[in-house]
Predict the structure of Zinc finger CGNR domain-containing protein.
Amino acid sequence: MLRSEAADLDLRGGHPAVDLVNTVAWRGDAHRRTEYLADYSDLVAWAQHAGILSLREASTLSGGIGRDEAAAARTLQRTKQLREALHRMWTGSGSARDAEKVADAYRSALRARRLVIDRDAAGWQEFALTVQTPLHRLAVEAVTFLTGGPASRVKRCGDDDCGWLFLDTSHRQNRRWCSTADCGNRARVRRFYERTRDNAGR
């Protein structure tokens, strides 16, 4: 597998579907905005990094199945459509169309699975590993998460330039930053600088 920057991306979202949204960095700063899913190989590398694919599955997709360039390009495009629909839904600008895009991706994922019953247990099983597997698994993760609790648990980082989302699991539901060591610390340094500048101007 070729090394991708997406494989080193911080997973601060607290859930794979939220981390998918964060594959665009610096959404609030046009000069620093970074797209980490530039091609299908980035999607595969990130999916393995995020636990959506195993190392063996990622290697198989990169080395063989993923060479269907047309199918890979379609899957990448649809994954980004899912990502942006989720972003709009979690930041308050979502619409019925966004919900339908997520539902379409989920229905496609279910068509690639069968329900298997083994004695007193049942579960979904994929027919095969395909180019679309990363998208299918992300769609299932997203819908399971969306239907499992309030959307208000997903918050936007207090640094508007950052724009990353995170799952707030704090007791008081008052977390402000995707990372207190990164964005939180940067905000503290900025406030300190502004206070020092104001005091010096008096």
Notes: The longest strand covers residues 113-118.
